Amino acid sequence: MFRKMLTASLFFCMCMYLVQAQGKLSIDNVYSTYLRNSGTIMENNQIKGYFFFYRSDKIDRKTNEYTLQILDENLNKVQDIKFQDGKNVNLLEAAYNGSSLSFLFRT
């Protein structure tokens, strides 16, 4: 009787261990970003979209990689624009005239 109980409890522990091992999650390619600026894209005092400007990578001591993410008014991603520039670049504002987007940067 004791042997059956021991076997059953060991089997139960093994099953619980396997269930916990399968529940473990891992996230690949996780990195941190540094948001530099965000704001709205306006046309005739109406919001047409949003932008997020952040540093996505450090290239060297004086150069960073930046990403400009553009969203529409429903917060759907339209485009990601990646470029390299100096470490002191800032995005001041954005505008839309119906056909073109314009961004004002300060270095």
Give an account of the 3D structure.
- By secondary structure, this protein is α+β, with helices and mostly antiparallel strands.
- The protein contains one helix and six strands.
- The protein has a domain at 34-106.
- A four-stranded antiparallel β-sheet has the order 1-2-3-4, with no helix packed on it.
- It starts with a helix and ends with a strand.
List keywords for this structure.
107 residues; alpha+beta; four-stranded antiparallel sheet; 6 strands
> Pairing-aware structural class of the strands and helices?
alpha+beta
Poorly predicted sequence stretches spanning 5 or more consecutive residues = 18-27
Helix count, DSSP H or I runs of 4 or more residues? 1
Envelope shape: elongated
* Number of strand elements: 6
What does the radius of gyration come to? 25 Å
Helix amount? 10-25%
What fraction strand?
over 45%
Largest sheet, spatial ordering of strands: 1-2-3-4
In sequence order, what are the helices and strands, one letter per element? HEEEEEE
Overall mean pLDDT = 78
Distance between the termini: 80 Å
Biggest sheet record: 4 strands, antiparallel
What's the helix and strand layout?
Blueprint: H1 2-22, E1 34-43, E2 46-58, E3 63-72, E4 77-86, E5 90-96, E6 101-106
In short:
The chain has one helix spanning 2-22; strands at 34-43, 46-58, 63-72, 77-86, 90-96, 101-106. By secondary structure, the protein is of the alpha+beta class. It is elongated and about 85 Å long.
